[in-house]
Amino acid sequence: MSMIVTMKKRNEQGQLMIGNINAVTLTEHYGTPLYAYDVSQIRDKARSFKQAFEEAGTEYQVAYASKAFSCIAMVQLAHEEGLSLDVVSGGELYTAQQAGFPMERVHFHGNNKSRQEIHEALIAGIGCFVVDNFHEMEILAEETRNMDVEARILLRVTPGVEAHTHAYISTGGEDSKFGFDLQSGQADAAVEKALDHSGLHLLGVHCHIGSQIFETTGFVQAIATLYQYLGHWHTVYGFIPEVVNTGGGFGIRYTSNDRPLEPGAFVEAVVKAVRNESTNHHMPVPEIWIEPGRALVGEAGTTLYTIGSQKEIEGVRHYISVDGGMTDNIRPALYNAVYDAELANRTEGQEEKTYAIAGKGCESGDMLMYDLPLPEVSPGDILAVYSTGAYGFSMASNYNRLPRPPVVFVENERHQLVVERESYADLVRNDLPLSSNELR
Ligand SMILES: Cc1ncc(COP(=O)(O)O)c(C=O)c1O
Ligand SMILES: N[C@@H](CCCC[NH3+])C(=O)O
């Protein structure tokens, strides 16, 4: 592998540029670890998805799956770009409210929404519930009755398509905790019940086949399966879907081995398949919704770390440790996810070596990479790990009581802090001293 594995922009001193700002300047301002986002990349991706729908001339919504990276500024950015928003919890909904996001464009997901979350979402007046199971449907029906309101819903179904991806991020197969199973008749019963409840307005169906997908075939297959059932529900219940939501999962480039498709290629394939199937089943073409998370924010994010200690075991491995790790990026430990990284503060140096990049957490498995070629490193060098914009910050933890890193947005040669670094005081904010509160 060559030393410079990516085509990232560098200044004349060989320092990494993020959105036209020197990454070293960012670390001097905000410290490390640091999540830095090149905002123009997020905007470009959002526009590409939308443009493909516009060109296809179909009704659509592109909902940003905010689980990938949720904070007030990101939700506001999604709003600026005219995206809708997928939330999966009261917390993500609250963030959207705090961001001033229009509630009618919020879609609420989740396989175990609580009564309180459902109640709060109804009060907020969200645009759509993606109903996952019978328990949720009953709660929603009761709450709409009690509040004398109507909820617009999609039914999440599992089309039995296995996406070629890690089992933990594959969600559309029959054996999934999410959604109504199509084959066993669960989904038929769900349609019947949904049509029966006066407080529920059944808009259509939703499926999400998995994540980090590089081909269109899985989507096309899933749509064909959905329409087998939609055709049946049309015949039996006279149901015509207003919306078909094919989820997210569009793959991105983590390393030079990844060859992601352009957003437009996915959109074209989805629109074509929905159109064909609608025609074949003598139904009007519905509004098409998609839910990209990773594809919108993943490649725009870079994590900057400072290199500290080293341990070389002759003939075995040369470890270098950074000041973050699994606490700010759990993906290598959880999914064996692979990333590209380079030094941010220089390209030059003595001979190239192969390093294993260790996190600072007290876990042997807290490793970000096992074989990264770099020029010989010294303490204080800055390591940039690329494509960490999705599911890095959002899955971060305080293991070992490490404060979560800040997030900076870079755009038009300016940088702006959008999430502050957690302080030690933040870490103990909810702790109560022994016996300070009344014993019950
Ligand atoms: C229902 C649903 N929609 C959208 C997404 C976003 O996926 P991705 O970030 O891979 O686009 C997910 C997560 O995998 C999901 O479960
Ligand atoms: N958190 C996962 C994606 C979500 C999978 C479930 N919807 C990842 O980092 O790849």
UniProtKB/TrEMBL annotation:
<dbReference type="InterPro" id="IPR022644">
    <property type="entry name" value="De-COase2_N"/>
</dbReference>
<keyword id="KW-0456">Lyase</keyword>
<dbReference type="InterPro" id="IPR002986">
    <property type="entry name" value="DAP_deCOOHase_LysA"/>
</dbReference>
<dbReference type="InterPro" id="IPR029066">
    <property type="entry name" value="PLP-binding_barrel"/>
</dbReference>
<feature type="binding site">
    <location>
        <position position="331"/>
    </location>
    <ligand>
        <name>substrate</name>
    </ligand>
</feature>
<feature type="binding site">
    <location>
        <begin position="291"/>
        <end position="294"/>
    </location>
    <ligand>
        <name>pyridoxal 5'-phosphate</name>
    </ligand>
</feature>
<feature type="domain" description="Orn/DAP/Arg decarboxylase 2 N-terminal">
    <location>
        <begin position="40"/>
        <end position="297"/>
    </location>
</feature>
<feature type="binding site">
    <location>
        <position position="363"/>
    </location>
    <ligand>
        <name>substrate</name>
    </ligand>
</feature>
<keyword id="KW-0457">Lysine biosynthesis</keyword>
<feature type="binding site">
    <location>
        <position position="391"/>
    </location>
    <ligand>
        <name>pyridoxal 5'-phosphate</name>
    </ligand>
</feature>
<protein>
    <recommendedName>
        <fullName>Diaminopimelate decarboxylase</fullName>
        <ecNumber>4.1.1.20</ecNumber>
    </recommendedName>
</protein>
<dbReference type="InterPro" id="IPR022653">
    <property type="entry name" value="De-COase2_pyr-phos_BS"/>
</dbReference>
<feature type="binding site">
    <location>
        <position position="391"/>
    </location>
    <ligand>
        <name>substrate</name>
    </ligand>
</feature>
<dbReference type="GO" id="GO:0009089">
    <property type="term" value="P:lysine biosynthetic process via diaminopimelate"/>
</dbReference>
<keyword id="KW-0028">Amino-acid biosynthesis</keyword>
<dbReference type="Pfam" id="PF02784">
    <property type="entry name" value="Orn_Arg_deC_N"/>
</dbReference>
<comment type="function">
    <text>Specifically catalyzes the decarboxylation of meso-diaminopimelate (meso-DAP) to L-lysine.</text>
</comment>
<feature type="active site" description="Proton donor">
    <location>
        <position position="362"/>
    </location>
</feature>
<feature type="binding site">
    <location>
        <position position="249"/>
    </location>
    <ligand>
        <name>pyridoxal 5'-phosphate</name>
    </ligand>
</feature>
<feature type="modified residue" description="N6-(pyridoxal phosphate)lysine">
    <location>
        <position position="67"/>
    </location>
</feature>
<comment type="pathway">
    <text>Amino-acid biosynthesis; L-lysine biosynthesis via DAP pathway; L-lysine from DL-2,6-diaminopimelate: step 1/1.</text>
</comment>
<dbReference type="InterPro" id="IPR009006">
    <property type="entry name" value="Ala_racemase/Decarboxylase_C"/>
</dbReference>
<dbReference type="InterPro" id="IPR000183">
    <property type="entry name" value="Orn/DAP/Arg_de-COase"/>
</dbReference>
<feature type="binding site">
    <location>
        <position position="294"/>
    </location>
    <ligand>
        <name>substrate</name>
    </ligand>
</feature>
<keyword id="KW-0663">Pyridoxal phosphate</keyword>
<comment type="subunit">
    <text>Homodimer.</text>
</comment>
<feature type="binding site">
    <location>
        <position position="335"/>
    </location>
    <ligand>
        <name>substrate</name>
    </ligand>
</feature>
<dbReference type="GO" id="GO:0030170">
    <property type="term" value="F:pyridoxal phosphate binding"/>
</dbReference>
<dbReference type="GO" id="GO:0008836">
    <property type="term" value="F:diaminopimelate decarboxylase activity"/>
</dbReference>
<comment type="similarity">
    <text>Belongs to the Orn/Lys/Arg decarboxylase class-II family. LysA subfamily.</text>
</comment>
<keyword id="KW-0210">Decarboxylase</keyword>
